[in-house]
Amino acid sequence: MQPILSTHMFVNQQLHPGLLEMAARAGAEGVEIFAARQHFDYTNREHVEQMAEWFRSHALKAFSMHAPLFPDREMGRSGAHPVNLIHPEKARRIDAMDEIKRALETAEQIPFKYLVVHLGEKTDSWSQRTVEYAITALEHLGAFASPLGVRLLVENLTSEATTPEHLALIIELGHLPQVGICLDLGHAHTTTGIPAAIQAVGPQVESIHVHDNKGFRDEHLWPGDGNIDWQATMLALHRLPKDPALVLEIHHNLGDDYQQIQSKIEQAFAKVR
Average pLDDT for residues 209-222, to the nearest whole number? Predict the structure, then answer.
């Protein structure tokens, strides 16, 4: 399984070549760029071109992008509404799609294979309207992403609307073969459980978010610092019909010594191979 590093752990600082070079030294074969404006400003042509130039001249590639969660530079602390594709208000849904399309457009300069999308927020419930809004958003974004060579992946979260079973049903009811699933192991561990999640969506999984927790909160810990059974989990993942990438997605505020992060990334990749 291809080892990928999410830049989420550096979300509070601007993405720069030094971070990408460290990812390569740590054994990552690609990165998932976390599209947050204070980190990767997809609206800033100069920043996008700087990153594009680096990728064009290095072996490490942009494997995927995580869609924006907020449209501001403070992750919502400025009062900006979250990016929510299934919000009850139509204007909010349109704003969310527009923000995601701004990030998607960077694929013209920085080619990436997948866009990982959140459907809603933690409190979103499951209903017929949820299904309708989700299908509409995925159809619209999929049509925008396809000419750019990008495939959409929906991620299981911790809400009722985004369980693995419900994501599979949305894809089925919407007849959306152009949409796959990013299985987030940490989210599954705190909700349905990892074995049930794999059983529900296994054939549709194309990318896996790897992080740990103790089963109660979405902590994004290093593998082994929580209580996920990694041996059993990796055995199950290796039985999947596809060979998904393993995207290490660690929290940005664990207090890690910057000088030790490279070795911790290396150890994490070794643990989950």
Answer: 96
Among residues 56, 73, 74, 3, the alpha carbon closest in space to that of 32 is found at 3
Contact residues for 215 (Cβ-Cβ < 8 A; gap 6+): 189, 190, 226, 227
Calpha distance 267→262 (Å, rounded): 9
What CATH code is carried by the domain that includes residue 135? 3.20.20.150
- Please tell me the total count of domains within the chain: 1
Q: How many helices (H) and strands (E) does the chain have?
A: 9, 8
Q: How confident is the model at residue 169 (pLDDT cuts 50, 70, 90)?
A: very high
Q: What domain range is 259 assigned to?
A: 3-271
Nearest to 201 by CA among 188, 210, 190, 219: 188
pLDDT tens-digit series, residues 93-137: 999 999 999 999 999 999 999 999 999 998 899 999 999 999 999
Cα–Cα distance, 131 to 109 (Å, whole number):
33
Do β-strands 3-6 and 151-155 pair in parallel, antiparallel, or remain unpaired?
A: unpaired
CA distance 150 to 142: 8
Judged by DSSP in three states, 140 sits in: helix
